[in-house]
Amino acid sequence: MGRTYFVEEAVGQYLSDLSTKLKPYVTGLLIGQCSPQRDYVIRAVRTPPKEEQKEDSISPSKLASIDEEWITTHASQVSRMLPGGLLVLGVFIIATPELSKDSQNALRKLIFSVEKSLTKRRLWKPAEEEVSDRAALQICSATKKVVCRTYDVQDPKSSAKPADWKYQSALSASWLALDCTVNVNIHIPLLATSPNHDLEKNTKTGLNRWSKQIEDSVFLINGQVKDDDTELLEGQKKLRGNTQSSTQFSDVKVLTQLSQGSSHRSTATVQVCSASINLKGAVKCRAYIHNNKPKVKEAIQALKRDIINTLSDRCEILFEDLIINEGPHRKNFEREYHVLPQRLFVPVAGSSVMLSDYKFGDETAGEIQERFVEMLDQSVQAEDIHIGEEINTVNICPVTDNMDDMQQKQLTKGTLLLKLQQNMGVVIAAAVAVFASIFSFNYFSD
C-alpha cells in the first residue's frame, strides 16, 4: 500500500492558480512533515524564475530545458527557512497535456537531485527507520488531473509507487511546538602542520563533532525525561475542534554530556596548534510536530536537527557573505569583527507553524520582503517582520600572511554559485521571535 499525503487546502488553491497563470509548465517544491503513519504537506512553492525569464516574460517550452541546478539551489535555500520537523518532501510539475508524458521522468530526476543536494549540507544522519519516500506530484494544467507517486531516495534504482493525495482544512492549525535555548561553546584547534587554514572547512569539522554531542544529549520536556515511545501529549490536554491557528508550546531543556563516560575508551592525542576557532553563544531553537498522537521520539529528533541546522546555517551564510563582499583575491585576514545573521520567524497564514530564516543587520525591511516573495512566493507585511535577537559578533584573527593559491581558486569557483544563491535570496524574511542570543565567533592565532 502506498503512502498517504494529507495536504493543506490552501496548497490546492495555490497549485490551481499556478496552473492557470504559468504555461507550458512550472516546477516547485512541496514542504511538510513525514511521520511513520502519514505525511503532511503544508506549503507548495514554485521555482523562482531566472533573471532572463523575468525580463522576457517567457517560460521554456520543453521539459528538457529544466534547469536542475537552479531547482536544487532553490531547495537548499528554502531548507534553511524550515524549523525542526519540516523538510522539502517532494517536487511538483504542472504541465500542459503535450508535456505530461515526459513529466514523470523529469520529476524522478529532480527528486534525487534535490535530495542529494540537501543531504550534502546536513551534519546529521537519518535514522534507519526514517521515512525515505519523497513525493512526485504531477498536475495537468488543462484537465487539473492530479497524479502523486513516491520514490525511495535511499534506493537509486527505486521505481514509482502510487500515493494518495488528500486535501484537509486547517491541517496545521494546532500543531505542537517545542522551544529551547542551547548554550554553545565550541573550541576548534587548527593544527600547526596544516599548509593553510580554511576557516569554513575547519568550522564545519568542529560543528560536526559538536553535532554528535547534541545527538547524545538528554532532553527534558517541560522538566521531565520522557520515554521515546510515549505520546508527546500524554498527561496534557489536547486542543480539539479548533480550526483557528493556535500553538501548544513545550519548553525543552538540553543537557549535554561533559564526557563520554567509562564505557568509551579515550583516544586523546597531543597535537601542536598554531591557531583556534571559538564559537560561543546562546541559540534559540524551535521544532514543530503534527498533532496526530506524536511520539516523544519524533519531537526530540525534530528539535535536535533544528539545533544542529541553525548553527550550521548561520556559519554557512556568514562565509558566503564574506566571499561575496570581500572577494576571492583577499591576501590576508586581519583582525576583524563580523556580525552573524540573526534568526527570525514568520507566521504562515492559517497555520500554527512559523518559518525561519536569517538576516544580517544592515538589511532593510524592503529587501527582506522582496526576497521572501522570491523564495517562497509569499508577501510579508513590514509590521510582521520582527527581529528577536541581539547582534551576534564574529572576531577573526590572522594565521598566515597569505592565502594559498589553491584556496584562492576554490573561492573563485565558489563565488559563481554563491552569487547565484544570493540573487535568489540567500537570507529571507521573518517574524515573531521571543528570544535573544549573542554569538562570539573567535579565530585566534599564536
How is the biggest beta sheet arranged? 8 strands, mixed
Share of helix, binned: 25-40%
Q: What is the total tally of β strands?
A: 17
Q: How confident overall, as mean pLDDT? A: 80
Measured between the Cα atoms of the first and last residue, the distance is 62 Å
Number of DSSP helical runs? 8
**Structural class from helices and strands?**
alpha/beta
The arrangement of helices and strands along the chain is EHEEHHEHEEEEEHEEEHEEEHEHE
Spatial strand order of the main sheet: 7-6-5-4-2-3-1-8
Low-pLDDT runs of 5+ residues are: 329-333, 398-403, 407-438
The 3D shape can be described as: globular
| Beta-strand share of residues | 25-35%
Question: What's the arrangement of secondary structure elements?
Answer:
Elements: E1 4-8, H1 9-21, E2 25-34, E3 39-46, H2 51-56, H3 68-80, E4 87-95, H4 97-121, E5 133-140, E6 146-152, E7 161-162, E8 164-168, E9 176-191, H5 199-215, E10 218-221, E11 248-255, E12 273-289, H6 296-326, E13 336-340, E14 342-347, E15 354-359, H7 365-376, E16 392-396, H8 405-425, E17 439-445
Parallel strand pairs: 1-3, 1-8, 4-5, 9-11, 16-17
Antiparallel strand pairs: 2-3, 2-4, 5-6, 6-7, 9-12, 10-11, 12-17, 13-16, 14-15
Helix pairs in contact: 3-4, 5-6
Overview features:
446 residues; alpha/beta; eight-stranded mixed β-sheet; seven-stranded mixed β-sheet
Verbal overview:
It is a single chain. This protein has 446 residues and is α/β, with parallel strands linked by helices. It is built from eight helices and 17 strands. The strands form three sheets. An eight-stranded mixed sheet has the order 7-6-5-4-2-3-1-8. The protein has a seven-stranded mixed sheet with strand order 10-11-9-12-17-16-13. α8 (405-425) links the parallel β16 (392-396) and β17. α3 (68-80) packs across α4 (97-121) and α5 runs antiparallel to α6 (296-326).
